TrEMBL record, chain A:
Principal subcellular localization: membrane
Transmembrane stretches, start-end: 7-28, 40-60, 72-97, 103-129, 141-164, 184-204, 246-265, 312-332
Provenance organism: Streptomyces ureilyticus
Transmembrane helix listed as a keyword: yes
Xref: Pfam families: CbiM, PDGLE
Localization per record: Cell membrane
Topological category with respect to the lipid bilayer: Multi-pass membrane protein
Superkingdom of this protein's organism: Bacteria
Record-given protein name: Cobalt ABC transporter permease
UniProt domain PDGLE: residue ranges: 244-334
From TrEMBL, chain B:
Primary location recorded for the protein, binned into one broad class: membrane
Name of the protein: Cobalt ECF transporter T component CbiQ
Pfam families noted in UniProt: CbiQ (PF02361)
Subcellular location: Cell membrane
InterPro entries in UniProt: ABC/ECF_trnsptr_transmembrane, ECF_CbiQ, ECF_transporter_component
């Protein structure tokens, strides 16, 4: 469902617009690296396919029917960069040509439906493919699970955007439960169709499925009656992006969001606090342990300007999260490398 | 592609609005929608004035009101959502016709309905007075990345082809006695979707080869450069500027 104009307030629409533009720029570069000058016709045709497949009706029961959203399918069939690009183009054209989804909400729509769905689906998919044995069946199973997660993730992302920039005070807890609840059901349908479709493509042209690229057995040549590994023609175009760049960009984005955008967020109590106030149970809430910490309630003590203090608190929060997250990540990676290093198997491409 | 390159919403005509360069129209509609969205919802009269502005544009474009109203139906799913708002929103409540409604929710519903409807009406006016190819040229003039515009143009150009292919597959299924009933027929439908993907992708490869054999090297030649005179810009921007005046009045009054 496309978000119309007036649903999300102007500053948050602008912020999501910046996020969407950044994501599209990154995927343009990524797609060009994967497809070089074939990008335009191939991505265009895949976008047309997604546009068409969204019109394909899947009957559910008793006269109701659903249709595919396509984010997870695009991610698995053509890869995350081209997937984001295709779904974004579909949304852009729907907004301009068919008045489907507001023009100011374009950023929200692209961020939620193109970026979040595709990236979540692809991350889950990649993780599962790494874990499961290298078989066709595991590709379809991973596709199913990836699609199951992608749809409620989009619903949760929508709720998050609504929580900071919604124009009505609907209790966020209720919105979250309703959105995620409904979308878990939709996600199961989406997952079934995605898995079946990916399975159908793998059965005919496994080489076309981006997510199944590691699956093909290496080519062997019979030279003088002996099987020899053929020289690798070209490495599969895996996203060869230096993680440092991604990390720096992510850090910069979160700092900007926390430091500057945060003071456009509604200063009125958020939905949960509001429900608490309305129902009168907030008087019973004891301030939790960190309430006297210098960052309590997202402001810094001793700094008068509320904007400055809120922004600073955001920046410090990002820093702390980053340090904690990196620590966990390094610990996990260290353990994993010590576990796998003795029996490391060269990955066949 | 037998239908020409016109899309469903386009309405052929020779009005002054049709004649405006596409990028001025795109910029005007975009600015107008931004102004509408940033208007305070309490200024109800402002939205009436916006509607009046759009009506005058529709009159200048000779788009009949019936056509415009019919296209507004696309908004219906969100109307349903807006109707729910007064029931679920929190805050102070009023009794209307024996139902307890939230004041905040009523304002929220009005906000979404008014701004959403104006946004849809503006987009419909843009789409009904601008040809597809022109729209893409306009996007390119507005400095959208050329690769993105190319992808969009391929999507538009082949959208009907792929949709027709899907329709032919449907006819083929039905002529073999298939009828989609319930979840059990998903397998067949998903196989069709898979086949459709393979056909689209292979068509993309063929299109690319055809383009390369005609000298394509990564960028499309720009044949008709659209430019806009100052008069055309001011004519197109009259809409958002008028809206901006209303918006400023809405904030101050």
């Amino acid at each position: 469902m496309h978000v119309p104009d007036g649903f999300i307030n102007a500053p948050v629409s602008l912020a999501t617009g910046v996020v969407a533009a950044g994501a599209v720029a990154v995927s343009l570069r990524g797609a060009r690296r994967e497809l070089d000058e074939r990008t335009a016709p191939l991505a265009g045709l895949v976008a047309a396919f997604i546009f068409a497949v969204q019109m394909l009706n899947f009957p559910v029961a008793a006269g109701t029917s659903g249709h595919l959203l396509g984010g997870a399918l695009a991610a698995i069939l053509v890869g995350p960069y081209t997937g984001v690009l295709c779904v974004s183009v579909v949304l852009l054209m729907q907004g301009i040509l068919f008045a489907d989804g507001g023009l100011t909400a374009l950023g929200v729509n692209i961020t939620i439906m193109a970026v979040v769905t595709t990236v979540v689906a692809y991350a889950v998919f990649r993780g599962l493919v790494k874990l499961l044995p290298k078989k066709r069946r595991s590709i379809t199973v991973s596709a199913f699970i990836a699609a199951v997660f992608s749809v409620p993730a989009a619903a949760a992302a929508f709720t998050f955007v609504y929580a900071i920039g919604g124009t009505t005070d609907v209790p966020i807890g209720q919105v979250l439960t309703a959105m995620v609840g409904v979308h878990v059901l939709i996600g199961i349908g989406e997952a079934a169709i995605t898995a079946l479709t990916v399975g159908a493509v793998i059965a005919v042209r496994p080489d076309l499925v981006y997510g199944a690229r590691g699956l093909t057995a290496p080519l062997k040549l019979r030279v003088n009656g002996e099987l020899v590994d053929a020289p690798a023609a070209e490495p599969a175009p895996v996203a060869a992006r230096s993680p440092r760049k991604v990390l720096l960009a992510g850090l910069a984005a979160s700092l900007v969001l926390a430091g500057f955008v945060s003071f456009y967020a509604s200063a009125s109590p958020d939905g949960l606090e509001k429900v608490a106030a309305d129902k009168g149970f907030d008087s019973k809430v004891e301030d939790h342990a960190a309430a006297d910490s210098p960052l309590a309630d997202y402001g810094i003590e001793g700094i008068m300007s509320s904007r400055l203090s809120g922004g600073l608190a955001g920046v410090i929060g990002v820093g702390v999260t980053l340090v904690a997250g990196t620590g966990v990540f390094w610990a996990v990676r260290k353990r994993r490398t010590t576990e796998t290093s003795p029996s490391s198997v060269p990955e066949n491409v | 592609m037998g239908a020409g390159h016109a899309h469903k919403l386009y309405r052929h005509g020779h009005s002054p609005v049709h004649a405006l360069p596409p990028h001025t129209k795109l910029a005007a509609v975009f600015a107008f929608v931004i102004v509408v969205v940033s208007t305070p919802r309490e200024a109800m009269w402002a939205f009436a004035l916006y509607a009046l502005l759009l009506a005058s544009v529709a009159y200048a474009a000779r788009v009949p009101p019936g056509f415009l109203l019919k296209r507004l139906l696309i908004e219906v799913p969100f109307v349903a959502f807006a109707v729910l708002m007064p029931f679920v929103a929190q805050g102070e409540r009023v009794d209307v016709l024996g139902m307890s409604l939230s004041v905040n929710g009523l304002w929220g519903a009005w906000n979404v309905l008014a701004k959403g409807t104006l946004g849809v009406a503006a987009s419909v006016l843009l789409a009904s007075t601008t040809e597809l190819r022109e729209l893409l040229l306009g996007l390119q003039r507005l400095k959208l990345p050329p690769l993105l515009v190319q992808i969009a143009s391929f999507m538009i150009r082949y959208g009907d082809v792929i949709a027709d292919e899907m329709r032919r597959m449907k006819i083929a299924r039905e002529s073999r006695g298939f009828e989609a009933r319930g979840v059990r027929s998903w397998g067949v439908l998903a196989k069709s979707a898979g086949a459709l993907f393979i056909r689209s992708y292979e068509r993309g490869e063929r299109v690319h080869l055809a383009m390369v054999s005609r000298g394509y090297a990564g960028s499309m030649p720009v044949i008709d450069e659209v430019t806009a005179s100052r008069a055309q810009w001011s004519y197109a921007l009259a809409l958002p500027v008028a809206a901006l005046v209303v918006c400023v009045l809405g904030w101050t009054l």
